[in-house]
Amino acid sequence: MISMDTGLVKVLGPKTAKAMADQLALHTVRDLLRHYPRRYARRGEMTRLDDLEVGDRVTVLAKVRTVHTRPMRQRRGSLTEVTVGDGAGSMRLVFFNNKHPHLRTGEWGLFAGTVSRWQGDLQFSHPDCHVITGDDDDWARALVPIYPASKDVSSWVLQRSVKMLLTDGRALADALDDPIPEPVRRRHGLVTLAQALHDKHRPESMAEVERADERLKWDEALVLQVTLAARRRAAALEPGVARPRRSGGLLDAVDARLPFSLTDGQREVGEELAAELARAQPMNRLLQGEVGSGKTVVALRAMAQVVDAGGQAALLAPTEVLAAQHARSLAAILGPLGRAGELDGDPAGTRVTLLTGSQKAAARRAARAAVADGSAGIVVGTHALLQEGVEFADLGLVVVDEQHRFGVEQRDALRAKGSRPPHVLVMTATPIPRTVAMTVYGDLETSTLRQLPAGRGGVSSSVVPAGEKPAWLDRAWARVREEVAAGRQAYVVCPRIGDEEGAGGGKDDDGPDDADGAPPEEEKGGDRRPPLAVLDIAEALRAGPLTALRVEVLHGRLPAEEKEARMRAFAAGDVDVLVATTVVEVGVDVPNATVMVVMDADRFGVSQLHQLRGRVARGAHPGLCLLVTEARSSSTTGQRLAAVASTTDGFELARVDLETRREGDVLGAAQSGRRSGVRLLSLLDDEQLISEARAEATALVESDRGLADHPELAAAVAALAMDERADWLQKA
Fold first, then answer.
1. Phi, psi of 246 (to 5 degrees)
2. Do 667 and 728 contact (CB within 8 A), yes or no?
3. DSSP-derived secondary structure letter, 496
4. Is the pTM of the predicted complex or chain greater than 0.70?
């Protein structure tokens, strides 16, 4: 008897099983049954062949209209051209030297191949074909499932394999372990797993497909939410150390030194954190907020409370530039309070210590010693904090900045450096839609800062369509000159560094993320020029439109001392224009910078552009962000950039971002893997379902017996937990 875990080689034979494993990553019966149809075709209905895109590998259901064989003109042999149509459009099938099935006019068939274009017409060259005969009852159904297929595994092979499991092998359907408990199914009106799989793969109507989708989405949502609820439950049961607020300590001194009043949001979130830090259970909280909303000050106040309680706080930043910026900012706010032990330090304060991988040996040894003996109450660093040999005297709070740049292993590695589990605060300046917060950061409680500090000048944005209107780019450089003449400064951001590595090289770890920064499909292609580079643009600006200005470059491959020196020079006003990669994306705070020009803006994602423009207008002067692109204004990319320019509301842009990106991009690259479990669930459309699944999961995990009475659900959760790619749960 077969089960969901039975290998496909036992069911389908070695040749088919190997092709499915190699090309579609399908290994077991479960994998195959969870390989859902991409769409459904109806014989005789319009399936819009004209909507196909060149380069797509697709399967179409169409009728043979003409078959014509003729000798080839330029070489020996024959060419057979078959025209097929679907009632709305048509396309050509091309076969060489009689290597084609015997297709006859009037026959219906399934044709699979890669779409190309010849003389303006869509065509398949040597497609796989399956002729539908009168005896072929599988294809006489009202709906024909069309599966994501591959070169050697066609949609009809997948259809017949699934049919064998669901109909010829009814014992399997009867023995399916249903992961959703029956009371949950009843409360939400869900069909059984066996019924859902049958309706998904062999439906009689779209109503059956919709019923199946609702149930199968619940499978995905509930398993994820139980996993996250279990993490929350385990964290709540961990024995931590209470770090209560102390009157008259460092926190009160910090508040007295602040040169501005806290916003209502900062105060509210601050009280929330203070209450959780005072409990013995470790805090696990996500702080999200608009660019410039003051998250760093909120984190500093939490760190000061922990120092008052005798502990240490560690701030983990993704880049050395950002770590150094945080260390400078904290030191500036604290003043003598951050230099305890030094001649001009306040003995009632603490010491802010920076630890990075590129520090010289002596500086690194001194920093490690201060961390180990506890004299450094606030430690700021990069991944160097995670290395062996870095030991804390009493780590009480871990603050992770820009959480999306780190994996769960890195966060846990830093937590493990405490003698007992420390409190954890993760921060992101990328606003997160509620569904993403529930799904990706579901093991964390969430706080949000929306209010910006008073006195900010505000930033306006415009798209510069350099391809359509080259004169606009000239005007952009004129605006930079005008701002500098008024005593201000500017950033110019490029996607890559540019060096001897060639046109395609030179991108460092500060460049656009693969997911967030990838260009839309419509603009990909081998003829697309390489992205613009910092070194090339800086040279062109010095020799051209900004020749009279002080132009400097900054990127991730510079030595740490050089990066620090150039950043200090820019902050001091000794540099007019800083040409940089996205090393300036987060944390860089130069109030005098009022204009940013983003070159090849279409190479960056929505949230990344929002982050970048947050570097300007951080003072009293209004700011300007110019998004330079060669994309057409009418294209999807042009519309995406227009959306960024139209609003500064990061939460609205987060929804735009979610609408224009694949689910796997948002959840992390590993999410799209077969075993991670999410195929149907939509973070954009299924907010209510995800919310209900979260409530059910919390109730199940917190019940007296937990999952003890639900072994099928427990097994599904265990399978996800064992997946080496399950760390995508902590990434956005």
1. -120, 125
2. yes
3. B
4. no
Q: Decide if pLDDT at 273 tops 90.
A: yes
CA–CA distance, 729 with 442 (Å, rounded to integer): 8
Give burial (CB, 10 Å; 0-12/13-18/19+) of 543. Answer: exposed
DSSP 374-419: S--SEEEESGGGGSTT---SSEEEEEEESGGGS-HHHHHHHHTTSS
Backbone angles phi, psi at 689, to 5 degrees: -65, -45
Residue/partner pairs of 372-375 with CB below 8 Å, 24 or more apart: 374/312, 375/340, 375/341, 375/351
CB within 8 Å of 416: residues ≥ 6 apart: none
Contact between 422 and 606 under an 8 Å Cβ cutoff? The reply is no
**Among 368, 350, 257, residue whose Cα is nearest residue 305:** 350
Task: Please tell me the distance from the alpha carbon of residue 629 to that of residue 602, in angstroms, as a whole number.
Answer: 6
Q: Report the alpha-carbon distance of residue 376 to residue 385 in Å, rounded.
A: 13
Q: Which CATH class is domain 294-428?
A: alpha beta
Which pLDDT value is given to residue 151?
A: 79
Neighbours of 565 (CB within 10 A): 13
Cα distances (angstroms) measured from residue 203 to each of 35, 198, 211 = 15, 7, 10
Report the interhelical angle of 320-334 vs 560-571 (nearest 10°): 50
Distance CA 103, CA 2 (A): 38
Spatial distance between the Cα atoms of 638 and 652, rounded to a whole number of angstroms? 18
DSSP E strands in 19-140: the ranges are: 39-41, 57-71, 78-85, 90-96, 108-114, 116-118, 121-125, 128-132
| C-alpha distances out from residue 634 to 51, 461, 475, 603, 625, Å | 18, 18, 22, 17, 21
C-alpha–C-alpha distance, residues 262 and 454, integer Å: 9
Of 541, 115, 583, nearest to 322 (Cα)? 583
Express each pLDDT in 31-67 by its tens digit. 899 999 988 877 545 446 666 777 777 778 888 999 8
Residue 132 contacts residue 160 (beta carbons within 8 Å) = no
Structure tokens at 383: 């991944």
Structure tokens at 288: 């999200």
User: Token pair for residue 296?
Assistant: 């760093």
β-strand pairing of 108-114 with 57-71: antiparallel
Antiparallel, parallel or unpaired: β 57-71 and 78-85: antiparallel
pLDDT per position as a tens digit, 581-594 = 988 766 577 889 99
Asked whether the domain spanning 294-428 has the same topology as the one spanning 39-146, the reply is no
φ, ψ of residue 159 to 5 degrees: the values are -60, -45
The tokens 């139980």 sit on which residue? 226
Contact 355, 367 (CB under 8 A): yes
For residues 681 and 219, give the distance between their C-alpha atoms in angstroms, rounded to a whole number.
Answer: 9
* Number of alpha helices (DSSP H) and beta strands (DSSP E) in the chain: 25, 22
User: 238, 421 in Cβ contact below 8 A?
Assistant: yes
Token output for 120: 């303006």
Name residue 392's amino acid.
Answer: F
Q: How far apart are CA 287 and CA 269, in angstroms?
A: 9
Q: What is the pLDDT of residue 136?
A: 58
Q: Is 510:556 a contact under the CB 8 Å cutoff? A: yes
Give the CATH superfamily of 459-647.
P-loop containing nucleotide triphosphate hydrolases (3.40.50.300)
Extents of the domains making up the chain: 39-146, 294-428, 459-647
CATH for 39-146? 2.40.50.140
d(Cα 353, Cα 331) in Å, to the nearest integer?
Answer: 9
Where residue 599 falls (left for φ over 0; alpha for ψ -120 to 50; beta otherwise) is beta
